[in-house]
């Protein structure tokens, strides 16, 4: 399983209940396909940097999940077909960003082999 982040911009003309229903539908789709730790973060209605599909505002939603690549490929296809979705982007997060990295090494252990540390 790999960590992913999905940014979705939904049509600003949708009601709040419709936005919640769509987000629930997409997160349920991920969970049903075997994704773990699925989280959705709604940023609310925001102004777009430039018009997209003749729209200047949209509901921003970020979905984070750990899943297999095929699961996210299917979600990507679903988002591309949905009329309510103005724009979306699926990003595979680096392991370090997803909190899977090893603990930070102490400064003593990061010294290069054979390097002098006492200034002599």
What are the SSEs and their pairings?
Elements: E1 2-11, H1 16-32, E2 36-52, E3 55-67, H2 69-81, E4 85-92
Antiparallel strand pairs: 1-3, 1-4, 2-3
Tell me what you see in this structure.
The chain has helices spanning 16-32, 69-81; strands spanning 2-11, 36-52, 55-67, 85-92. By secondary structure, it is of the alpha+beta class. It has one domain: 2-Layer Sandwich (Alpha-Beta Plaits). Strands 2-3-1-4 form a four-stranded antiparallel β-sheet. A hairpin with a 2-residue loop joins β2 (36-52) and β3.
Task: List descriptors.
120 residues; alpha+beta; Alpha-Beta Plaits; 4 strands
Number of strands: 4
What is the fold-level CATH name, i.e. the topology?
Alpha-Beta Plaits
Radius of gyration: 20 Å
Q: Approximately how much helix is present in the residues?
A: 25-40%
End-to-end distance, in Å? 48 Å
How many structural domains can be distinguished in the coordinates? 1
Q: Quick one: overall form?
A: globular
Order of helices and strands: EHEEHE
Concise summary:
This protein has helices spanning 16-32, 69-81; strands at 2-11, 36-52, 55-67, 85-92.
């Amino acid at each position: 399983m790999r960590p992913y982040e999905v940014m979705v911009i939904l049509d600003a003309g949708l009601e709040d209940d419709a936005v919640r229903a769509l987000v629930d539908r997409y997160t349920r789709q991920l969970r049903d396909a075997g994704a773990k730790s699925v989280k959705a973060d709604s940023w609310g209605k925001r102004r777009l940097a430039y018009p997209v599909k003749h729209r200047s505002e949209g509901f921003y939603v970020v979905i984070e999940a750990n899943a297999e690549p095929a699961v996210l490929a299917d979600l990507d296809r679903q988002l591309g077909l949905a009329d309510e979705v103005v724009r979306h982007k699926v990003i595979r997060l680096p392991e370090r960003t997803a909190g899977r990295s090893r603990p930070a090494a102490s400064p003593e252990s990061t010294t290069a082999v054979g390097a002098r540390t006492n200034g002599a």
